[in-house]
Amino acid sequence: MTLAMGKSGAGGDDLDDQFELDPELVASSEAESNVDPDEYLEPPSPRPVPKSTLGKRKESEGRELDQDKDEVDKQKEKRKRKREKDKIRRAKRIHTGVTTITSDVSPADYTPEILSTLFTSSLKASLPQASELELTDLYLPLNIFLLPLSTRLESFRSSKSIIEQPSHIKDSKDLSNPPTKKQDDSKGRINNDQSQTSSESFISLQKQLSLLSLSPTTFGSPNIIILCLSGLRCVDVVRAVKPYRGNGEVAKLFAKHMKFSAQEEYLKKTKVSVAVGTPARVGKLIESGALRLSEGSVILLDLGHEDSKKRTLITLPEVRDELWKTFFNGKCRQMILANAKIGAF
Known about the structure:
alpha/beta, 45% helix, elongated, disordered N terminus, 7% strand, Cms1, Protein CMS1, single chain, Rossmann fold, 5 strands
């Protein structure tokens, strides 16, 4: 069988078959090829954050807040401690400044203003945590302090009435030359005291005692109470004041001399003109009622004596604290404010 062949002489489709494409179809195809495929895609929805991630984020933020709060609290506590330390340092500076100003003056010649400042500084150092309102209740009034010894001596020579307690005033005494070592005392006995009695502080003490008539009328009610830094210092002071005991006895009121109960019994049956002791023991004896303060009693503090570290009766911590917590407090304080005057030597 013979097949009919085209002009080209080849079989099947051929490029020369005069086939033409539809122009509209070609244009449509070209237009479609220029379209951005993203135009027909929906925008992606936000991806949900897992709950566990949110929890961790909140927990992290919470920790940061807690850390900030802790840091603020630490700063507040640090500032508070600094204020407390500054308060204590200021109290120490106040006392040091007053001591420097008055170091060339005998404590017996301190004015009431200087004594008040010293006692106030001592009180603040003893109670550094107390508020100003609390301290106000413990301050000693200015009028409780004696005038300087030089002023009292001058006034005594001219009027013989400076302390305003006639029953306590000596009508005749050589105040410029108080008895010292190996001189006769008021009862004609020889005083063989140690050389300490002629020291400046003891001379000023003896002059102050010379202003008073020491004649106690009741048991356990001394005219003069002397407070010292220690029992050893009390012994030295007792030697110095014996020539001035008048018609009474000199009582040794400190822990190492007698038991407390023995001292109570002693005071109940003894007329004491001068009592020498430490703040703790004297304060407790006043609280117990064995030692009494009568109108016109004089309390003298041994501020001229210092220990090896230059501390005094009102600056040595353990003694100073007893002074304010026992002697100048409670029942003892009430009796002092009602009956006594305070001085120093």
